[in-house]
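Narrative of activities, Objective 1.

The group set out to show that a structural description can be obtained from nothing but a protein's sequence at a throughput compatible with the screening campaign. Below is one input-output pair from the validation batch, recorded exactly as produced.
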Amino acid sequence: MNNIAQLIPKFVLNIPEDLEGGILFISGEHRTMIHLCACGCGNEVALPISPIDWRFTFDGETISISPSVGSWSLSCRSHYFIHENQVHWAEDWSDEQIEGGRRRDRLRKDNYYPKLSPLGASTPSAVSHNGKKPAGWAWLSKLKHWITGRFDKK
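Output recorded for this entry:
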């Protein structure tokens, strides 16, 4: 397996079925980024875009992603950062560190999304309980419009 040194961003409306190595596909429409693992194992790595998952910055040429990418459920268990398209390898995590990270993720999501309704609905909505859109919704809508209007719609 050959490590991938950089991931080039490609903004798309829909994620293609067959991914190319070294390309980070970004769909604002689907709020996700996906790429082949940087270790070269060939596994797909999907990163949901949200305030409690992954965020990215794009300066017109390069992309940076936060937090790090930890492929803990893959056999390779790759761990890396993506900064200005470059892949920077990070330390391996122990099983205890991985479980602690997963607990923090669950807690963050439990605090961010509304609790389950009595009917079991757990999908967050674009409208809060008071009928207003949550703070920050406007910028996400503007970003989606800008991305889909600016980049190819394949």
